[in-house]
Amino acid sequence: AQKMHGRRRPYRTAELARLMYDESLTPAQILRRWRGDQNAGATDMDEENEAEEDEFFRKAKDDTASDDYEDRAIPQYDYRVLERKWTEEENLEDLRQRFASANLSSGANA
Amino acid sequence: MPEPSSTSPLRFTGHKYLTQRLVLSTLTGRPIRISGIRSSSPTQPGLAPHEVSFLRLLDTITNGTIIEFSYTGTTVVYKPGLITGSAAGYGAASHGGVLRHELPKECNRGISWFLIPLCMLAPFSKQQLNIVFTGPGVITSATQTGDVSVDTVRTAILPLYTQFGIQNNIELRILRRSCSGPGGRGGGGEVQLVFGHQVRLPKTLHLLNAGRVKKVRGVAYATGVAASNNARMIEAARGVLNQFADTYIFSDVSSAPLLPSEKGPPGVKRKVGIGFGISLVAESSTGAVYSADVASPPSGGEPPEDIGRQCAYQLLEVISKGGCVSSIGANTVLTLMAMGSEDVGRLQLGRDVVGSEDILMLGRDLRGFGASGWGLRDADDGEGDIVVSVVGRGVGNVGRKIA
């Protein structure tokens, strides 16, 4: 948890509350500003933002593809990144705290 | 509460968040005008088939709604009426109180794209809502356009309404399953939604403890393909999840829906909506639900093991984001909270859930419709979550108003 939340600490809540109703910015811009320059992690949200920028330039020639970026309930994940993330023992240990079976050894209820 | 219809419509641009704005407009009674709908697109300007169908659906369940399109369909003026549900005399009587809504075969969104906004309207309806979605465009599975499957709606979205005291006589029946058809368009499934619990005002909500995930349930579905696909998806998903929690995944196998073929001699039917997919829902000790959905792409080529594993990893990712409601249910919960009584409700959400475009836009849209702004503060428990405070607007149900 420390690793994940340590990274997020710069994302201050008060900052988001302030930016949220600034009508001169689009939500994508707000999020980029809120996250600061911490794009090194390249989370899936960042990719979505990039995709939207791409869409802006691509719209004229390839419209069917840009339709994919509307109102998704499930964000587009890069499953290779996810798989790598959730096979690392460190991340799995952090996540185990979110489960009721936290004190059990792994595979206890197979 | 509907204000006099003479008020000037709220103006929005773009096709994004269309259902959200239409729902808010219907709930608050404010007319809206949406312009610039794909106006820069040379090939498909204006409303897409599924969006037109959603507008027709709104027209079906309301009385007195006025919808005006521009010639090109890039501008819509929507003046909402009263939400009547399946009241007698509005088209439902001839089918025994059941409304039928037919989706066109060009529809490339899953049925959940229609169901989730519809469920937000249903508690404020005058009478119960009983509607069957049918036609060649009904896709019950998850889709490539990012919609969740109908199983997730049933097991992860509808239980959210229980928190608001809306729980009786709500049922989502899957009459016929379907995956997305060729090119991601059309399916041929059939789904019935019964939403029989109408309220005056939803309860004020205080959800601050996400608890710990105690079990994972899921549904693996295969339409028109071998049942072994289900077994393979389930095994791969369990391989990832078994170390965390008690996991049980149901298997549902059905044949592919038959639709009349456009090509070839009349009377010939063809199978559409062939594929498989999996929906996983994790439930916490305090009733918070997290869900994940993956389905095979219509083009095929993905082995079921990959689908199962992807879905499991997606579930872990959603759980790791935390909060009492995942991003899929957050729109529903926040909208209902804003419609609640004039009291402060609190909801703890994951940092990445609040910090997403959809939620920010919902907050802005809600304020545009006259709700007060959200208060954001850090949660106390050191999990890095954000507590969103929402003041209800006391809009509630006009049809059920006493005095």
Question: Would you write up a description of this structure?
Answer:
The complex is a heterodimer of chains A (110) and B (403). Chain A contains 7 helices and no strands. Chain A is an all-alpha fold. The model of chain A is unreliable at 38-68 and 104-110 (pLDDT under 50). In chain A, helix 2 runs antiparallel to helix 3. Chain A has helices at 2-8, 13-20, 27-35, 44-58, 63-66, 79-85, 89-96. Chain A is elongated. The longest helix of chain A has 15 residues, at 44-58. With 403 residues, chain B is an alpha+beta fold. Among the domains of chain B are: 1-82; 209-320, Dihydrodipicolinate Reductase, domain 2 (2-Layer Sandwich); 325-391. Chain B is built from 9 helices and 20 strands. In chain B, the strands form 6 sheets. A 4-stranded mixed sheet of chain B has the order 1-2-5-4, with helices on one face. A 4-stranded mixed sheet of chain B has the order 7-8-10-9, with helices on one face. In chain B, a hairpin with a 6-residue loop joins strand 4 and strand 5 (76-79). In chain B, helix 1 (18-28) runs parallel beside helix 3 (112-121) and helix 7 runs parallel beside helix 9. The longest helix of chain B has 18 residues, at 304-321. Chain B starts with 9 loop residues before the first strand and ends in a 12-residue tail after the last strand. The mean pLDDT of chain B is 88. The chains are: A mainly alpha (110), B alpha+beta (403). At the A-B interface, helix 1, helix 2, helix 3, helix 6 and helix 7 of A face helix 3, helix 6, helix 8, helix 9 and strand 19 of B.
